[in-house]
Amino acid sequence: MQAVRSFINFAERQGLPRSALLQAASLVEEQLHDSHLLIDVSRFEALVVYASNTLNDALLGFTHGQVFEPDRWGVLGLIALTSANMGAALQAQYRFQSLSGNMGAPIHMLGTQEAPAACVQWVPAYNCSHHTCEMIVTGLIALGRQLLNDQDYSPLQVSFTHSPHGPVARYEEYFNLSLIHI
Asked: What does the angle CA 86 – CA 81 – CA 116 come to, to the nearest 5 degrees?
């Protein structure tokens, strides 16, 4: 529920009425404060699509994901924030993700001594919208920047299974690399 509350707060700051956002997610205000409540991802997707369409912002998920808020991820955010490094944070995410729902699995593959690069991948648990995919991928990069205390941290590669929904330059500027989509 923390992710839903975070997104509603974000969309409200973008100018949307809170009551309309709650209606789009089929929620009432009191439910947003129930940290044990899980909602079906289709309701979250409906909320994100409503906000994107109303604001005419195809990059809403991408923009929202750029700010790392530990409480957005619930207990997983706190675990990630206290992890020693990105690999430990993602291993904890993978191990404990069922505590806060299951939208997908972060996978962290460490390089070798000869090729020390690491790969971070997020595998969605369902056919999610580009908003959700971009929100999570940008959130993982924001997490890495927070853990490393390095705002210039950049992955070696970012790839999406969807085409960019906005200017490629915006993606490349955030990720600090050339964008690849499959």
From this structure: 10
8 A C-beta contact, residue 157 and residue 176:
no
Residues in the chain: 182
pTM greater than the 0.85 cutoff: no
Cβ–Cβ contacts within 10 Å for residue 69, how many?
A: 17
Beta-carbon-side half-sphere exposure of residue 40 (alpha carbons within 13 Å): 4
The Cα 156–Cα 176 span in angstroms is 9
Task: Measure the CA–CA gap between 129 and 71, rounded to whole angstroms.
Answer: 22
Predicted confidence (pLDDT) per residue in 128-167, tens digit? 888 988 888 888 888 888 888 888 888 777 777 788 899 9
For 160-179, what is the mean pLDDT? 86
CA dihedral 17, 19, 25, 29 (to 10 degrees): 130
**Alpha-carbon gap, residue 43 to 24, rounded angstroms:** 8
